[in-house]
Amino acid sequence: MKCFVGLDVSSTKLDVCIMLSDTSTPVTASLSNDLSGATEIKNHILDLNHTYHFERIVIGMEATSLYSFHPAMFFHEDSQLKELHVEIMVEQPNKIKKYRDAFYIADYFRIERFSPSFLKEEKYMALQHLTRTRLQIIEQLTRTKQHFIENIYYKCNTLAYQFKKEELSTNLWSSTMMTLMTDDLRRTC
């Protein structure tokens, strides 16, 4: 017999439905989305496994940004659940959108049309955060440079043309030009 645990995760609660392969649902509950709620779900799974001796246990939930991360990591890292080879599946919302509550999510995993998902470990979450921060800084730097270029254009929109006309060897982007453009800023700082 197989056990499928469907979790509908929100910011404050975990709606849980434990469905067996014969579609019976020995446990349906609404618990708090914290350590005590996740521990209660784990205890239900362990009690049912003691009774039924499951050949496969799948805990499935929809990826709901920050809300599903902590329960998924709790179940993934728990030593008692690891001994039972419990599979933790965090499914993308576009695949599971028809299944709006815990019962239907458990049923979705019961029909086994999902593909194995990979949980993001903490070190990869930190890397993802650093990468996003770097991207945001680069985007801000690009916007700032674009703003600076627009200001140069407003101040001296004919300067490049005059350089070409008079055949001067200087460049619009030379250090002298940059000093002229930023000199006012240095004096005021």
TrEMBL record:
Please report the stretch or stretches of sequence annotated as the Transposase IS110-like N-terminal domain: 5-149
Which InterPro entries does the UniProt entry name for this protein?
Transp_IS110-like_N, Transpos_IS110
Q: Which GO terms describe its biological process?
A: DNA transposition
Q: Which domain of life is it from?
A: Bacteria
A Pfam family found in this protein is DEDD_Tnp_IS110
Q: Which GO terms describe its molecular function?
A: DNA binding; transposase activity
What the entry lists under PANTHER family is as follows: THIRD ORF IN TRANSPOSON ISC1491 (PTHR33055:SF17), TRANSPOSASE FOR INSERTION SEQUENCE ELEMENT IS1111A (PTHR33055)
UniProt protein name: Transposase, IS116/IS110/IS902 family protein
